[in-house]
Amino acid sequence: MPTARCMKCRTQVEIKDPEEVILKNGLKSLKGVCPNCGTKVSRILGKASEEEIKAKQAEQESEEKEAA
Ligand SMILES: [Zn+2]
Fewer beta carbons under 10 A from the terminal one: N or C of the chain? Predict the structure, then answer.
């Protein structure tokens, strides 16, 4: 299980419901919630490749269209 630092628990926790996201600055990060307190936690995985950024952008755009 991936872990991240929870600001509220002030400790390393397992990421619950982890979801990979590409940040605007081109970094890949894992977003989820702390299993102890429910606070949102995230962890930077590293730089996303150009293909990953493009794939994610296309995916997010189609999701936005579906939601609208
Ligand atoms: Zn926590």
Answer: C
